[in-house]
Amino acid sequence: MISAYRSRRAARNANKIKKGSKLVDVDVEVTIPEHFRCPISLELMKDPVTLSTGITYDRESVEKWIFEDEKHTCPVTGVSLTTLDPVPNHTLRKMIQNWCVENKLYGFDRIPTPRAPANSYQVSDILSKIVDMRAKGNAEGVMELVVKMKDLAKESERNKRCIVANGSARILSETFEMFSSYKNQENASVLEEILSGLTLLLPFDQATKSCLGSNQCLSTIVWILKVGTLSGRRNAVLILKEILSSDQTKLHEFTEIEGSIEALAKLIKEPICPTTTNASLLAIYHLVTPSTSFDHKKTLITTFVNMGIIDKLLEMLVDCSRGVCEKSLGVLEGLCSIDEGLEKAYNNALTVPVLVKKLLRVSDMATEFSVSILWMLCRYEKSKGVEESVAIEALQVGAFQKLLLLLQVGSSVKTKEKSGDLLKGMNVHRGRVDCIESMDFKDLKRPF
Question: Which of 253, 245, 440, 251 has the alpha carbon at shortest distance from 356?
């Protein structure tokens, strides 16, 4: 103990800094003045701003409160705000900066003066120049301006809101459509740069969606999906997901473009990053589960099945994040809505173990998808008049206990009905099968 104390004392002495004839101990605790702390984060304010109620906050914290959380009241007083635009408190900021300089030896660096946020005039100027450059067909000029706009948007949420409010997404989508008329390897860079800028402005307004949903733009997006760079393909599928999820009429137009299905499937079979995989799965989900004619849907699903997507999805489900798991199961359920998909899933050795493993372990949505697919596989098996191997295999990996528990916890009516049907089919085999994975229930919270 004495040795440890001496070590600590030696370390403190080593940290003392000699300044002139004085010794300064850097281990001395310095308390941040209360009026320098943000009432929301309780941290030292970097960019203090004052609301209409007269209370000062750090800009990042209060703008998150107002614009992301959509709370239009003062966090401290609860009084409704007469304006949502906070006013910079320059006096307090200079006081904080001076205090940081005075306490530099104690680890406080001077907070740099924040850059002035983007304003409507600045954004409008960039947009008007983009319009002029595209009219001249100047791809390099457009690229430089889009990069400048992207840099502004990345600086702060406030800049992004200003850029969106001035109709930037519509201008960029129209510029993308114009350069799509001459899509070639020379224009590939500007087209990818525009898509990159558009991904920062999601979600889109209706005018932007309509423009990007034109046949010309969709064809260019598919072209980038097939021959673009990795980042270009990532941005293209993010834009595509937004179009397909918000406009069901574009589904048929997209599938009519040559190579569109193959390009999407390739992003699943040869993943780029989790963001791309999630967007690709969501786009495919909208394609295989639409409210369109069954014949068209069957053709699409058959194409995906023949490309080996079911086997890839099952491999992904063995070890994946929650978001990928939910979307993969949703796509798998859509693919299993026809016999070709069911046959492919039925013949894969991973299907039943993976589906049972996901029950009650990922989310309510994942559980509902898993139950639905198991139920469809059992019905498919009965229609073929073969031995009930799905029920037996599911019993062996602990499905009976999970489904029984599922009837007692919260779930949808359809899921409970399907769980009951599965339990009835499994019950006749219980005498010769007795196996359960107890670890599946280790961390399960029971509400009863």
Answer: 440
Q: What global pTM score does this model have? A: 0.76
Reported as type and span, the H/E element at residue 22 is strand 22-25
The residue ranges of DSSP E strands in 59-131, in sequence order, are 87-88
pLDDT of residue 374: 94
Cis geometry, peptide bond prior to residue 117 (ω within 30 degrees of 0): no
Residue-wise pLDDT for 327-336, tens only, equals 999 999 999 9
Length of the chain measured in residues: 448
Q: Whose CA is closest to 208, among 250, 171, 157, 255?
A: 171
Measured CA to CA, the distance from residue 337 to residue 373 in angstroms comes to: 9
Contacts of 215 (CB under 8 A, 6+ apart): 253, 257
Q: What is the pLDDT of residue 5?
A: 41
Phi/psi at 46 (nearest 5 deg)? -100, -30
Q: Residue 366 CA to chain centroid, in angstroms?
A: 17
If one counts every other C-beta atom within 10 angstroms of the C-beta of residue 182, the result is 11
pLDDT score recorded for residue 407: 85
Give the closest residue to 115 by CA, choosing from 88, 145, 77, 147.
88
Does pLDDT of 110 surpass 80? Answer: yes
CA 414 distance to own-chain centroid: 28
Where are the domains positioned within the chain? 327-448
Degrees, nearest 5: CA angle 155-158-162: 105
- pLDDT greater than 60 at residue 441: no
User: What distance in Å separates the CA atoms of residue 106 and residue 74, rounded to the nearest whole number?
Assistant: 33
Q: pLDDT tens digits, residue range 75-102?
A: 999 999 998 888 899 999 999 999 999 9
Question: Which ranges of 319-363 would DSSP assign to H, the alpha helix?
Answer: 322-335, 339-346, 351-358
What the block records as the tokens of 168 is 């930037």
The token duo for 378 is: 């059992």
Structure tokens at 50: 């004052």
> CA-CA distance, 368 to 349, in Å (whole number)?
21
- Return the H-helix or E-strand segment holding 18: strand 16-19
Residue that wins the pLDDT comparison between 437 and 393: 393
- What angle (nearest 5°) sits at the alpha carbon of residue 30, between those of residues 25 and 33? 160
Report the DSSP pairing between strands 56-58 and 22-25.
Answer: unpaired
Q: H or E segment at 57?
A: strand 56-58
User: Tokens 């590939």 — which residue?
Assistant: 188
